[in-house]
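Q: Here's a chain of 293 amino acids. Please give me its 3D structure as tokens.
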Amino acid sequence: MPEPFGFLPVDKPLGMTSHAVVEAVRRSARLKRVGHGGTLDPLATGLLVLCIGAATRLSEYVMATHKRYLAKVRLGATTETDDAEGQLLAEQPIAHLTEADVARALAAFNGEIAQIPPMYSAIKRSGQKLYELARRGEVIERTPRRVWLQTRLLAYKAPYAEIAVECSHGTYIRGLARDLGAALGVGGFLAGLRRLASGAFEQMVAWQSLQSALADGTWQRYLVDERAALPHFPEIQLDAAQSQALRHGRAVRTALSAAEGSLARLYAESGAFLAIAAYQDGLWRPVKVFGQS
């Protein structure tokens, strides 16, 4: 029986780690390969895109897309982890803050900005993850990252600000909460987070619905194919000779030209998904080859 292939957009419940969701689906569906397209912290809910079977090889392209979130920021306090899981470090009075104050400060977090990653993150330094160093009480200098943000204040009812966020890959919403609080001079941390969209994914399967479908063996009806997952990659249909060449790792020339380094989805003469290819020197060169049909 062929291994299932595709993407499973799941509404991750509060309290579960992304790894726990992956393992639950892997065990219940008896799958060998399950990954995901971007971690959600345990205290976050919302869209977690699972990659099933050979689609795990496409996870980097799902991760690289923009994300949309609904964030709840607690102003007037800071924590060790920049979220509600960490130890409370300090509190500041915020009675003077108005909604207009928060909106003005938030306006600075739009467009491309430099963001310092939190110490409690999975970024590695000398082979060790930053959160491992942080747990030992070490704080080291982190290199700021260029990220892109679009933010909008939805509501402010002290001490909480509700914020709509669209951002590039690699943006830490905990970092936004920390930096917004610092800009206001009162501190802040992320009190709640829901991911609403990731790239082309906006719909998601409720966790209970997925569990029921896993139990009765109908879970594959929720799978999304590579066309829907990566619509920003153009689609190229190959003939038999081109398909054969690509299967053997050779570049092919097609009627479609593109910017140097652009990626596309290539399909065999049978219509089966065959490869992801990059445009270089007038040819489409295979980056990841999948089907053999």
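Q: Can you summarize the key feature?
A: The longest strand covers residues 145-157.
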